[in-house]
Amino acid sequence: MKIHHLTAEDAFASLHSGPDGLAVAEAARRLIEFGPNQVESLPLEPLWLKFLKGFIHFFALILWFAAALAFVAEWRAPGQGMAMMGYAILGVILINGLFSFWQEYRAERALSALLKLLPSQVKVTRGGGVEQVEAARLVPGDLVLLQEGDNVPADCRVVEAYGLRVNTATVTGESLPKACDAGPSNVEELLHSKNMLLAGTSVVAGEGKAVVFTTGMNTEFGKIAHLTQAPKERFSPLQREIVHLSHLVAGLSIGLGVVFFFIGQAMGLSFWENFIFAIGIIVANVPEGLLPTVTLSLAMATQRMARRNALVRHLPSVETLGSATVICTDKTGTLTLNQMKVKKLFIDGTYKTPQSLLEHPEPHRELLAAARYCHMLNRKDDGTWLGDPMEVALVQMSEQVNGVWPDLPVLDEVPFDADRKRMSTLYRTASEQVLYTKGALQTVMPLCTHIETESGSVALGTEAREALSRAEQELAEQGLRVLAFASRKVTQGEAHEQLESGLTLSGLVGLEDPPRAEVAEAVRKCHAAGIKVIIVTGDHPHTAVAIAREIGLCTAPLVVTGDDMQHLSSAQLQLKLDAPEIIFARLKADQKMRIVLALQKKGHIVAVTGDGVNDAPALKKADIGIAMGIAGTDVAKEAADMVLLDDNFASIVAAIEEGRAVFDNIRKFLTYILTSNIPEVVPYLAFVLFKIPLPLTVIQILAVDLGTDMLPALGLGTEKPHAGIMQKPPRARGERLLNRALLLRAYLFLGILEAAAALAAFFWVLHGGGWQYGIKLPHHEALYLQATTATLSAIIVMQVVNVFVCRSDRDSIFSGRFFDNRLILAGVAAEITLILLIDYTPWGNALFGTLPIAGEVWLLLIPMALAMLALEELRKWWVRR
Question: Distance (Å, rounded) from C-alpha 600 to C-alpha 621?
Fold first, then answer.
């Protein structure tokens, strides 16, 4: 038999312990045998390896290769600017590697957070005496003493209980405190047994003794710790797309470099001329600024999210949330306030609310008095109440309606226990003694002979009893915790055993953990955005369904409990998830994680919200874990990718909106930076195929990729979500960041226009200087330097227009949003300033191989830029049709 099925005496016997606890020597021996009562850590990846990984991923390897080629080319042909290119690429690698390592270093610290929940000292009985020992030195068989406010140090079997109630929400997700007693339990599941105390939970009322039966990693807490420590290996959707893009860019760049190397060979160029030419092709096609731009764009998105109360712990999570198709949300503290409140009362045959009692509280004074005095709370120095949240809610309701009640001396009490399901307190007023009772209706009503009405006390007849039973059922179906209240005057000297008899029933009170006010609208927006919301909770099914209906999540959901899940295969669970409305209740930590895995197998990108220890494994396994910042445990926060600073489910919708914008924005600046690849590549092709002077040098390519393009690209990365972004379904899991439409627009439309402008400017200057086809120009000749300067300037001017047309692939730039992105405007200003410095300052000329160009060149470029704008506007108009 399991230990919770045994009597207290048999539980002691099974652990070779007893009411006097273990002998000190035996406890020491068991400590050696079973090990310390602490969460063990798994071997962590060395810091040096984490650091190294930032420099050896695929895109970094491409950049390493490009840098190596640049240095080789500089060695063989000095003075071409190849060394500077190599150093610039190394700088890109270093910045990204260091940033990646910093993010990794800040990441998973769930173990240290877990340890904070376990007490450091605990009272135990050993050898018949009580002593304080370190929680880590507890062993199976130890007898621990617990009282209100204590954290439970290990998994224990209760052997004595006096009004003992425990908050298990952090481990089981149950919103209401659990009453505990020492009797054997008939339930199969240990987590739901009334005689079990679990490590990591806390005592909210009463006191008791319990014998330790499991310590360390074998506790339910330890099992959750083990699940939480499992590494999160999966890439985010954005990371997968960057990897895919890296492979595509690498193949394209190297392939073109090799092809044109052989073309040059066939046309009679020397090996090293061909080699430098091939490197130019590769460098022109590798967007060196892509990773810094993506990283900085994500970082800036995290700042915007933080202003909307969503703190991002891992950068890729920004975009992952935007692509989420399912949100598995915890109920307690996430959809709800995690604060018990009185919602409805049933008095004198009618339903009422606390607000409805404010005008005429006097007819209901007995019920209000019972709610105020029948409790086991303690008042703190600041006047607030400490103890069971349900009792705190009752006292607050009573004082809200009736005002401040006087403190009365307690004469006697009959404490609550799990079998009686009620409690009573005896008070002395100024003139009499009054007994107040509260508890489950089925245990309170048999003790009552009368019922309170507005006209006075009347006999409690069959009709009234049936009405009370119906009301209790209706309130319970609404997900409320229902309590019956009764009272009577007690004559002095009555026996303690006779106190709970001849009572007058005052009424029923229904309590709930109410939903947050903003949640209903947030759920509506999720539905409009094509995101499925599933409640996954450790709480009671009735409570979960009631909250779901109240927030508009569902009307007639399929309810699956933890017991049901034990009998479901993986295939059956995946089929269950096809239900349009589904709620999971009474789940354990591993079952929540199983749901996440099943949804991922169905192709979903899964976001999980939670606040308890029991949520941590699912938070970590999800594509994105979202923890509550206020009510959430440290464990949940450390396991999550994102933390809601205001614990508001509605903040998730704002974060999703930002996340969706990130993917769109990355596409925008990807279009922008890929467009400039064509005017960088075409001059090299013209150089080889038509034997003209090289229109653009490698160092000038870097001036574009790592200089002038960077700030405008970042501006595109900070674009606000466009109107209607939350009315579209999530993007398909297989949808590529770099799709056909983007490539066609960047390479075969905008890029061709820019390349035409660049070559036109190059030949304009050459022709004006008297150059004729077939004449070779030395690299240091002024005419050649001015011609390449014109090519570079043309690309920059066209990119100034391009940054505005890339803000949308459909909407006109004249649609009223021209001045709403200050970073783009600042980027354009910086871009223009930089090209003027490159063209017209001595250090700019020396560094980039340029010379000042005449004003007529600019007059040529401006109409070309306007023509590009007009053609793109025409294309957008055609698309909008």
Answer: 10
